[in-house]
Amino acid sequence: MLAAAGAGGGVAAALASCGGGNDNPEVTQTVSPEQSRSDAAVMNALLDLERMSVLAYTLGRDRLTGPARKLAAILRRHEVEHRHVVEQAIFDLHAHPVPPRPDSSYTSGFPPLGSETEVLRFLLDVENTQVSAYGDSLGSIVTPDLRATLLAILGAQAEHMSVILGHLHEPQASRAFVTGNAPT
To answer: In the chain, how many domains are there?
Structure first.
């Protein structure tokens, strides 16, 4: 995943820099201390979401078998990596990650995880929540490199959703996404 995140980071960096209208590569954006603190607060919220995701995959993986269990183990490793990247980003902002909450504060909101389908649907919901949160955060993050990091993680979360949908034998991309038409 690191290589994929690095490759995605290049594309993400290009996307994050779009719209500036400045062709001078010597110009850099200055981030004020207030903006840096704001970015750190957003990143801490995403860190909490990553911690919840790792726990969800840990519990989910333990209730799955065969290919679905292997998938959950792989995606859990990705989430652990995302957690580390987000933590490092917070440190890079000269801030401190919020302390982790007790597992029970997350699991109290988890649905009962019985069948394989229920577990996969829950993991799909977790990924969907992350896609929404990362997408929403892009509008408030000021630090350019951080936007590129968020875009790379956002892309990975969307890929996770697609793979989980495949395991659920559902379309991996909605018809609207593929054709531009509303699903029927």
So the answer is: 1
CATH code of 75's domain:
1.20.1260.10
Residues 6+ apart with CB under 8 A from 158: 127, 131
Q: How crowded is residue 78: how many other Cβ atoms within 10 Å of its Cβ?
A: 21
Tokens standing for residue 85: 């990247």
Whether residue 2 is contained in a domain is answered as: no
Q: Which residues contact 82 (CB under 8 A, 6 or more apart)?
A: 50, 53, 153, 156
pLDDT in tens, the chain (184 residues): 333 444 344 434 444 444 444 555 554 567 777 888 999 999 999 999 999 999 999 999 999 999 999 999 999 999 999 999 999 999 999 999 999 999 999 999 999 988 999 999 999 999 999 999 999 999 999 998 999 999 999 999 999 999 999 999 998 876 555 444 444 4
| Total-model pTM | 0.78
At a CB cut-off of 8 Å and minimum separation 6, what does 46 contact? Answer: 86, 133, 134, 137, 150
Whole-number Å distance between alpha carbons of 14 and 81: 22
Helix, strand, coil fractions of the chain, as percent rounded to 5:
70, 0, 30
